[in-house]
Amino acid sequence: MKALFVIDVQSDFIKDNSKLPTAIKNYIENTDYTLIVISYYKNTTSTSFYRYINCKEGLNNGPEIIVPELRSISKPHTIIEKITYSIFKTDTIMPLLIEHNINEIDFCGTDTDACVLASMFEGFDLGYKCNLLQDLTESGSMDLSTHESALKIIKRNIDPSVKSLES
């Protein structure tokens, strides 16, 4: 069975002119998955982000930080709060995957070079077939090469078939 993980498509990470939220919503509404998981990042004073890289943003984040387009999808989905790069560090994700007999996961969201990449590596290490939906990922970095570099890393190490949805 196959799951879709939508990683951190939240208002504090998405660029103002991004078409990503609408593209992901349209994709979800036109594609069938056994399980759809939408994650958002919440910072706390105990996270490595707060303690080691002095990131103080996101301390008050809750599910409302998810972009409106994804909060309004009509298909059943699960929302998961995470405090690390990888979605697999949450206590709730593995029971969901086991309950739904998931063996393959499609990933999309942001940032390609951070949370998407970390989640894909961990999912792969845990034995899941991990696929990147390239057209449904982006990086919030002003340096566009970080997104391209992450795509190369994913293609080399996890998903050699990374391709555009249009191909």
Describe the 3D structure:
The protein has 167 residues and is α/β, with parallel strands linked by helices. The chain has a single domain, classed as Rossmann fold. It is built from six helices and five strands; from the N terminus they run βαβααβαβαβα. It has a five-stranded parallel beta sheet. Strand 4, helix 5 and strand 5 form a beta-alpha-beta unit. The two termini are 23 Å apart.
What are the salient characteristics of this protein?
6 helices, alpha/beta, 167 residues, Rossmann fold, 5 strands, 5-stranded parallel β-sheet, single chain
Shape: globular
Strand order, sheet with most strands: 3-2-1-4-5
Question: Could you list the spans in which at least 5 consecutive residues all have pLDDT below 50?
Answer: none
CATH class: Alpha Beta
CATH hierarchy: architecture: 3-Layer(aba) Sandwich
Biggest β-sheet strands, sense, barrel: 5 strands, parallel
How many domain modules? 1
Task: Estimate percent helicity.
Answer: 25-40%
Subunit arrangement of the protein: single chain
CATH topology: Rossmann fold
What is the mean predicted local confidence, pLDDT? 93
**Proportion in β-strands:** 15-25%
**Relevant CATH superfamily:** Isochorismatase-like
Radius of gyration: 15 Å
Number of helices: 6
Helix-strand topology string: EHEHHEHEHEH
